[in-house]
Every structure is written in C-alpha cells, then in structure tokens.
Amino acid sequence: MLVMTIKNAFLLSALFSLPIMGFSQSARYDSLVWSDEFNYNIGGGVDPNRWFHQTQLPNGSSWYNGEIQHYTNQDTNSNVKNGKLFLRAVKENYTNQGVTKNYTSARLNSKFAFKYGRVEVRAKIPTGAGTWPAIWMLGKNITEPGAYWQTQGFGTTPWPDCGEIDIMEHWGSNVNHVSSALHTPSSFGATQNYHGVYLPTATSSFHTYTMEWNEDSISFFIDNNRHYTYSPSTKNASTWPFDDEQFILLNFAVLPSISSAFTQAAMEIDYVRVYQESSATNPSNAQVTFAVDLNQYSNSFTTAYVNGDFNNWCGTCNPLSDSDNDGIWTTTLPISQGAIEYKYSLDGWNTSENFSPGGSCTNTSGSFTNRYLQVLSDTVLNPVCWESCIECPPLHTVTFAVNATNITVGPNGLYAGGGILGNARAVKLEDPDGDDIYTGSAVLNGHSQGKFIFLNSPANDTDWGAKEDLTGKPCADPNNWNDRTLPIFNSDTTLLFCYETCVTDGTCPGQQGPDNITFSVDMNAYTGSFNTVYINGDFNGWCGSCNPLTDSDGDGIWTVTLPFTQGSIEYLFTLDGWTHQESFSVGSPCTFTTGPYTNRYLAINGSTVLPTVCWNSCSACIATPPPSNNYTVTFKVNTANITVGPNGMYAGGGILGGANAVPLNDTDNDGIWEGSVLLNGTSGGNFVFFNSPSNATDWGTKENLTGLPCADPSNFDDRIIPTFSQDTTLLFCFETCITDGTCPSITGTSNVSFSINMNQYSGSTANGVYINGDFNSWCGNCNAMDDSDGDGIWTVTLPLTADSIEYKFTVDGWNDQENLILGASCTKTTGIYTNRFLAINGDTSLATVCWNSCNACITVPPNPQADPQIDSLFRNSFSVFELQRLPNGMYRDSRLFTGVDFHPISIANTGMGLIALCIADSMGWI
C-alpha cells in the first residue's frame, strides 16, 4: 500500500484470475521472534507496547492515493475481541487537524522492526468495492510525519527509497482479488514488481498471508502456496532497498469509489507472527531498565526483586531499589536480545505477582503466566503497577450509600466488605440522621473493578453469613460468591444502592409506589392449540388463571401489564391455566433455579416494558429468512469480429460496478471470453462489455450499441440483464444484439440501399435529391440519388465500411435538408444536431421513408370511394375510424384498427350510404 500519490497510476487491468504456484514456505525461519495473538483484554484496545496508532495527516490535509478517511485511535475503528483484531472503517463525520472527513478507520505501525525473516498474518478481509485493507511493510528509516519510527528519530529516507513490501492488498472493485507488490526507486506506483490472484473465499474465510525475505529474494504465499517471488538480477539501491530493517503496517483505507450505501466493514486478523533463523538471532546484550510501582501494594515488604528465565528465577539475584522513596522500584540489567519471561517478587519468593492468562504484557506456558518482553535493544520500561500491565491508576475516595428501608438492621450495624475491601467488617456504615441511608468511605483504585458486598450486623471479620443475598440477580457475580462489582471511576465518587437489590439510584422498590411491568410473549412458533395465555409466579401464588394475557390485534403476541412492589419475581407463561406451561433448562440466561424448579426471573428496578420473548425462550422468536434470489451468472462474449486489447475483456457498468468489475478470460483461445459473478435474479439492471479497460473508470473502452434494439438509451446504451431463477449462462457477440454466442460474418464492405419518397415534398426536386452523412464528410452533392422511373421514389445503393453512420437526405446539394425531430425512433442527437442513424450489420435494403419522417408516407384513397376494397398505407402511430350513417338518420363511429403499416378496409358489406374514414394520430385528426 503506497504512501505517495503515484499510486493513482497503478493499473487495475491486470487483476484477473492468476494461478498460485505450488511452492511451500521455507523451513529455515524456525524461531518466533515477535508476535501478537490478540489473546488479551485491555479495555478492548490494541496492545500499546506492540502497536502505534498513526493518525497524523502526513501532508496536513489528506492521506495519499485519493483516500478519503481519517485514521483514528478510537476503539470503534480498532479493537480486540475474542482473540482477534478488528480494523473497522466507519461512515461518520470526523474532524482532525482542522480537516473534516466522512469516514474513519485505523492504521497501525508495529513497534518492532527486523531484517530478513518470515511474516505470517492470518486474516479475513472485508468485501465491497472501494474498500482497501492492506498488510504491508515500510523501511524503518522512512521520513513520514506522524509515523512511529520517525517519532523515534529514525526518519532519514524518503519513499520509495526506503523500500515498500506489500504482503496483501485488496482494493478497487476487484472483490476477492488479492495482490502483493514491491516498490523500489526503480519501479514504484504502477510497479512492475507485482502479482495478484483471484481468491474466491478471501472475504468469507480466514487465509494465511505470508512473506519470506532474505538477502537474495522476497517471496509471497497464500495458505503456504507461493504465488510470486521478486529477485532482481542486479541488486543495488535502485532495485533492492531491502537490506535494512522494516516494520509492519495494518490498515484499512477508503477510496472515493465507495458505495453510498456503505456504513461500516472490518478486516479481522487472528494473529501476526515474525520468524527468523535461530542462528540469525543476535546474542549481544541490551541494557533493560525494569520498574514496578508499589504505592498501591497494601501489605508490608522489605525489598522488591525481578525474577525470570534470564536469571533462572533465582529469587534474590536481582533486587530493585527505591532510593528516592517514591514507591517506584527500579533496576537496570544486561539482557541477551530475544524474548524473555519474568515477574516481580517481594523479599525473594515470599510474595510474587499472580497473573491471569490473556494480559497484554503476559505469556502463558502451561500453568504459568508471566510477564513477556521482546528485547531488541537498550530499553527503559515504564513503571507498571503490581500485578498489572499498565501504570497505577490514581486512588479516589468512594462513598458507599445503601438504603436499608426494606430490612431491619441488626444490633451490630451495616458494613461494606469482602473482595477488594477486605473482611466482613472492612468499611463501617453509619446513619447519623436516621433516614435509613447508611454511608461509609474507602480509598480505592478507580480501575480495579473489584468485588464487594453489604453485610447486616456481622459478628466478626469472617461472619459471611451476614451478607446480603443477591443470588440470581443481574448485579451479582456468580463466579465471586454473588458479590457486587465495583464500577470504574476517575474521581471521588458516591455510589448509591438498595440493600439486596440491583437499584443504583438510592431508592428501594415500593418507596415510589408500584412499578408497572409489561410482559409480552410471542406464540406464533407454538405448534399446539390453546385458548388463552396466562402469567403465573410467586407474586400471584402461582394461581393458574388469575392473570390472563390478551392478543387483541390477533398478531400472535400476547401481553399484560401488572403492578409490582417487590424487588424481584419468578414466573412462567402458561396456557389455559396450568394445561401447558413453559419448561426451561438449568442455566438459561433469563432464569433462576431453586431446587427442581427453573423459572423466569426478573429484578424490578422501575416500571418497564419487557422485550417480547418466544414461548419457552429467553429471546425473541427467530424469523424465517426469505429465500435467496442470488445465483451465479456466467457471461460469455464472442470477440470474433474485434481485436482484444492487452488488458483483456471485462463485463462491468450498471449493476456490476466499474469498467473492470468482472474479469473475463479465454483459457482455450477460442475467442469466447467468459467470467462469472453472483447476482440477484429478480433485480434486473444494466451492464455492458469492455475491451481492455485501463482502470475502473475507463468507460471509453465500452462496446458501442447505440441504436441497436438491445441497448437501453436511458442508461448510456448499456445492455439490460434479464431476470433468472437459477444459475445462468448468458451468450453474446461484442457490439451486437445476438444472444446465441455467434457473431455475424464481417466482409469489410456492406452494400446499403437507401430509398426516400418525395411525393409529399412541397418544393422542387428538379436539381436532384442527395444523401449526406459522416461517411462522405457531409460533402453536399457527392452521392446523388436516382428517380429514373419518375415515381417520386429516389434511391441509391452505397458501399459502406463503418459499423454505424449518421446521415440525412438533402435537395440540390445543401439547398434544402431534412429537419428531423429530436427523439424520433430513427435518429441520434449529438449536441445540437439530430440526424438519421443506422447500425450496419451487413448488406441491406432499407424501407422507403417519407421526407422528414422515420416512416413511409401516408396515402389517402380518392374520396368519394366506390371500390369495395381500399388498400392504404398508414403510419404505425395512426388509428382509423369509421363514421357511418344509419337508416334512422343517426351516425355511428368505431375504431377499425390501430398500429399497423398496411391494412385493407372492406366496404363490400356495409350497404348503401355515406361512409367517412377518418385518420388520427396523437396530435389529432389528419
């Protein structure tokens, strides 16, 4: 992924399906020297020790390549979840450096750089034209404002002199087409050092994208299969800037061609790994400064130590010191370059840190989880908190206030305790004003999210039988004795509670009157028969038919609203009293189990309308998805009558997208190019074929169908895709309307006969009638027509070589000419000129037309008419009416016919009398 505007010149034309060569990766890179498995949770963000968010616009206004996004450090654009990294582009307005853009995304720089080795990235890339996810590398020495390594003082070399290695890119309109490239001073932007492959599951499945780099070559692999190797015969600064350290970039750009319907999409990354030869690792030592902040460690100790695999976990070999008594203990040690595991301990091994797996600074091997560090050079570690990957958060005063209105407080009073607070009587709570609100304070870490609980009249520090019972309630942590969880806070804080409830506003249920709860159950998926749905629970003594639900609108959703004063309830929905009832498994998320009974459970914190749930379910009914209308369409186009350009054939435009939306191929060299795409069979739409487009917007290479019956003049004369209900193959001939896959034979010259009826021309044709057009440069009197039989029909036959022509008839050279109506069926308008248009597909004799008309002249028979048969010619757009006098003196009329060129009218059986034939067009009677 280039960082210079030259990339706009990069040709997408080569992005058709290419084979993957069957060569697997080298085994020489056997030592994992750096990785991110994303198996951690630090507030959802990426590990700041491994990655740097590059957000500064390098030129003050935009990124290169016409990209239209801002890169941010927002968790909505880059976050870690379930062991994977998500880089997400989002359609939203965002302002940075005084510049507002309509899209945001993320760009990460690795804080690790290396020379020679293998990079492996397992990823699933997003779909959609206009998205541009990339996995790539740049020289550590690049000069780019805002890049991580420049901020560290390494920026000395401009692009492309620093070298760029594109491991994987997926961009433009070529969905499921991935590519790799090298950019060097000798070839960059539209680089020749490039190869792409069609990967049908690139956007639906994870694939492993790999790059191997040594002193002689750089190779690219997909799923262990090599598809390209770069190894220039001459290696110098111009062709091989790859003899210095490079760093890894992960980013997701947005192009101007993004669909207006786009809202967001993500590239998912499972892991990033770097391997080198074990013999290539540098055994030299680096000076590493360790630092641990023990200000918030609450127990006593004498000395802090650092222990790890570098000192064989010796216990007291490497003490730390706190000479300035600021609570931060440090030491500097020589450590061999490479990966180390370690942890801090107190007084030898008297006390040591204890980590859970998944921390951003840790590594787990078997049952041991230790701190982890890649030692690459002299390093000064930031002070971290004991048993934490980050610095110690500030301490704040927390005031606990618990409402005891609904209980009787025992003689020993109320306490907060357990978990982060300590024993059963850790924080004594007082009620000096007798309002039943008991309060007490403690100084705590605002980011610890530890556990605590309230206790009523505990007898001693271990009297846990006095704690409140929150079992089954949403504020209870079942993995920690159903204790409460302390929220995160960044300042002195007062927390409000009601004893044995989850209310957090300091009130207790019943104090403000009854809470109205609306229940709703969807019975549409229930297959049995019933009359009425009921709700039964501990609030109504499980009475059976006390509280029916109603379905007044007959939509299958039954509802009821009931008043409650208690803090929680257990209940079930039943049918016809107790004829049928719900049955839940133990552990269902909306239930609570007491002995053999598992019921629905609700903690009441105020009036509410509960979401509609399905019968016997904790969630809504699953809607049956509509049938899919998507099918594979194979386009086949015969190119026998054209020369295919160097970039090949494509189908595109309209419903397909850009000019190179669907690459076509001719593997058997029979002149028939084909390619497939998944389309909705009922939506219709337009498309057209392109001969050698250079990019997605090269519309000048489309076939010319102007004036042909298969062209849609309302949509740039594109073809119209038919509807279909199964996988379909469509056959065409380039620039014709033939749909059987054949092409007409082209002889080079077509003899075309023209004929015009001048009988209704009001002027004189004594000096001849002519035909003028683009084929004779509108010369005036070059091509005279002939009326040797004097019937007023002038004709001429001309040999023409063009595929189509524009023309008109003239009188006496240019003394008079046709004035054709804009939009007439036989015309084409270019600018201010409207001329006749003809697409030529071989020898032909054109029908005789009237002057200034696309149709034959109208002839009206003599009037009155005694002949029992009248044969007349009428234009397609005319109607003929009969007006007949009846014996009673009345008249009648009726439409005889509409829309034919020739129609015989029989009057043999109409009887005597006056008959009027009236001709009308859309403008009125003629």
Give the helices and strands, then pairings.
Layout: E1 31-36, E2 51-53, E3 69-71, E4 78-81, E5 84-96, E6 99-105, E7 107-114, E8 117-124, E9 131-139, H1 148-151, E10 164-169, E11 177-183, E12 194-198, E13 207-213, E14 218-222, E15 225-230, E16 246-254, E17 264-276, E18 285-293, E19 304-308, E20 328-336, E21 338-346, E22 351-352, E23 362-365, E24 368-375, E25 379-380, E26 384-385, E27 395-403, E28 414-417, E29 427-428, E30 437-445, E31 451-456, E32 484-485, E33 493-498, E34 515-522, E35 533-537, E36 557-564, E37 568-575, E38 580-581, E39 591-594, E40 597-603, E41 608-609, E42 613-614, E43 630-638, E44 649-652, E45 662-663, E46 672-680, E47 686-691, E48 719-720, E49 728-733, E50 750-757, E51 769-773, E52 793-800, E53 804-811, E54 816-817, E55 827-830, E56 833-839, E57 844-845, E58 849-850, E59 869-873, E60 879-885, E61 891-898, E62 902-906, E63 915-921, E64 924-925
Parallel strand pairs: 3-6, 18-25, 18-26, 27-33, 34-41, 34-42, 43-49, 50-57, 50-58
Antiparallel strand pairs: 1-17, 2-7, 4-5, 5-6, 5-17, 7-16, 8-13, 8-17, 9-10, 9-16, 10-11, 11-12, 13-14, 14-15, 18-20, 19-21, 21-22, 21-24, 23-24, 27-30, 28-29, 28-31, 31-32, 34-36, 35-37, 37-38, 37-40, 39-40, 43-46, 44-45, 44-47, 47-48, 50-52, 51-53, 53-54, 53-56, 55-56, 59-62, 60-61, 60-63, ...
